[in-house]
């Protein structure tokens, strides 16, 4: 089955071939987990939601039709919907710092986990969490999945230009928030003069 | 504010945005899921939800359906038999009721006593 192309795997999977679906899982599980992890900030919720994404995909794979949107975009949309539902659940809406998640995962010994070392990164993550949901989604897709604006547009159902513009506005607002930040968490050497110095 | 970028500020703003991008790059480092989680989920997906599992599930459903139907028919049959039997035993009971009732029989000696008193 090593010579199987993505299209063939997908075609087999849509016919109900569980081995083919397993191959799709192998390909996308890590990416979906990363996406959900950064959207929720919790290892446990990321695992739970990743499971749900793939079970939902499994249930609906036979009705999947290629309409020019890649399979990955279809998966990310499922993930996005589940994460949005998760955020709507007000009882879970309390902020969970990523660092806690990392610590929890460290104790469970994953060798490749990355520890958020600096306070600057934590502070920046807090700022990101205060951004509107679509902006968070955009940043996560761009930086954890290294997607192009066109690919992100397919997932978020927007044009490439709209994503480019949204990304620029997101960077500007983050820059503004960093400049406003008075906690001293950010090293602003690259930011020129501080606002009160201007 | 962030909305207006004057031409003479453009380079500076771009430099700052580049720094923000670098910071974002350092924040969003790839995270690996627990290997046990990914392998367990794979097993659950491929085994339980595969087409073969689906076929066995429908077979199981069919067996349950037929079994349930047979059980239902049997229960109905025995209920009918039992009710008929009750009817029959009820009739016998009525026939048996033609004999003097125990309380009536018990009242008879009293009558005898009365007659004895009268006789006395």
Structure, described:
- The complex is a heterodimer of chains A (198) and B (120).
- Chain A is an all-alpha fold.
- Chain A folds into two domains: 1-116, Orthogonal Bundle (Rna Polymerase Sigma Factor, Chain: A); 118-184, Arc Repressor Mutant, subunit A.
- In chain A, 65% of the residues lie in helices and 0% in strands.
- Mean pLDDT of chain A is 80; it is low at 99-116 and 193-198.
- In chain B, 81% of the residues lie in helices and 0% in strands.
- Chain B is built from four helices and no strands.
- Chain B starts with 9 loop residues before the first helix and ends with a helix.
- Mean pLDDT of chain B is 74; it is low at 111-117.
- The interface between A and B is large, with 53 and 38 residues.
Summarize the structure.
With 198 residues, chain A is an all-alpha fold.
Task: Describe the secondary structure blueprint for this structure.
The complex is a heterodimer of chains A (198) and B (120).
Chain A: H1 6-14, H2 18-40, H3 43-60, H4 71-88, H5 98-107, H6 119-129, H7 133-143, H8 149-156, H9 160-180
Chain B: H1 10-27, H2 35-48, H3 51-97, H4 102-119
